[in-house]
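User: two proteins, same treatment. go.

Assistant:
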Amino acid sequence: MTDPVIVGVDGSASSLEAVDVAAREARLRGVPLRIVHAFGYAPGHRPAGGPPWSPADDGLEPMARGVLADAEERAHAAAPGVAVTRSVVAGDALEVMEIESRSASLAVVGSRGLSGFSGLLLGSTAVHLAAHGRCPLMVVRGRTEPSGAVLLAVDGSDAGGAAVEFAFAEAALRGAPLVALHVWNTWSEGAYEGPGDPLNAMVVDIERLREAEQCLLDETIAPWQKLFPHVTVERRLERARIRPALLDASRDAQLVVVGARGRGGFTGLLLGSVSQALLHHAHCPVTVVRSRG
């Protein structure tokens, strides 16, 4: 692993907290940290066919460099010895960070930015990168102290395999236990599988469903437990409402790992409802891992 950890900064308190976490993540992985400040502009304010815009055109570069200098100082304080590079990139923050993610091992952003409306719980950059980024995205929120287990949200979907692999690798890197939590209920997809099960069934064989969900959890975890024999794994099966159960479990975790999509999402959606709920309300940082497919 040689690709850097990247972190987007805009001078907000949330982004500076993300720098602290990103620096520690870079040190953990033994890779450089790249601090990126995207300086956006309204395209309609530039004449068509004119030269590319840069912060220097409007005398804004000193401010941008000041934001980066503050971020770099925090990075060195949080993780002494980590190699740090920084850059100002002209363009929309969403596009800039998506492009930067193509050559990164991990992207880190704060949960809120300077441009967010006061009523929003999650910034637009975080939402966009979770759905479109080319590397795993860590959104920094809640407790940021690296203590507790790595919490993996197991959904059994084909797309969730990348999240399982990432969670095991993270637990190994951190020397932390892994809690693989699979939450189910009578609305679970498995309740109506198999011939003769009508879609409008009113009675569900709870024990059969519980056994099927336990099998799904075991089959998801077993291959990776063999590849990471030194990771202590707790397989946790819980019958509950999915989002509240995962949010509650995040109280004791140092990191939540979740796939971008689950079993129940609509085909056209790039970010599932469970992933969105965790990004908005989890009690610790959340990493969203997209399928490589």
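Protein 2:
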Amino acid sequence: MSLLPLDDSRGPLPAPASVPAAPSCTPPATALSPPAPCTSSASPASPALAVSPVGSPAAARLLRRAAVLLPVLLIVVWAAVDWPSVRGGTARLASADPWWLLLALFFTCLGWVAAAVVRQGSIPDRLPPGLLIASQLAAGAANHVLPASVGAHAVTLRFYRSQGIPLARATASIALYSLAKPIAKIPVLLVFVLAFPDMLELGALVPDDGTLLLITVCLVAGPAAAALLVTLVRPLRRPVLALVRTALSDARVLHTRPSRVLALWGGSAATPVLQGCVIAAVGASLGLPLSWAQVVFAFLAAGTAVGAVPAPGGIGPVDAALVLAMTAFGAPLGLATATVIGYRVLTVWVPLLPGALVLSALVQRKVL
């Protein structure tokens, strides 16, 4: 028995939509009557025959190529502006011990892995490890172009969205690991202070009044401006409150899973230690007369003192504070400056071109 209501049909079956019906002309009833006009079953305004406007694919290809080439162009422009520093730092590293430099490069690569571990620990969803590490290499390149980690956050957010993570959860994850990184640095500093109490005698590590004022303004102005904006602009209240609820809910879920807790807080504590190890290895390659613990503690103290000042990748304020800290430990000023320049070349300029190429490849493959 057929499931279609064919038995009750009183007329012929309709013709398929793809095959237009032939026009039918009714012959005249008499010889004197005029012929009836020919009619067609296909309407001229049929949706099947309507032509929808199609956008030009050339514009989409041009936009994609521009997005792919933009990171490399930014790197070229920045290299042209900061070329004296690049040339001087490369010349200094050319005379350094290559084995210590190789160890410093190893710690640099471990820093990318630690950053990927922190990102995984800040979100309940499981992310592909290979693409996650590649995205952090690309985020490092973007981070050194824009201040206050804006570039790295934008790349990470795009990566989260490409993995199907909702916008509220992705934004909450970025806020969570941005908060965990400075908090995790405090117990690391306490460990160094308890293990090496003589390091507290360095009064030069305390920032001056101008630096303290700038740090205070940066720390207070940001939350105050955000609170004022949410208070005055009503359409922002609902998404901000939804973001806060999502962040609190995800943080509660993450802290019930030991693997996520270890990844988030352990990776956040390991990241500055690995960066300090890079500086210590570069200093050892140049003959810096400081111990490994002194260099790492100097980096932690410098980053804590002026890390709130927004600068691309922390370049500028952190560098000056780091040179000051190492000279306070007894290192010659020229050698301390050479160590910081070599550290920046090794951690910024050497990975910058590969990071920009990875960023372009991820954009081309629609991962970002």
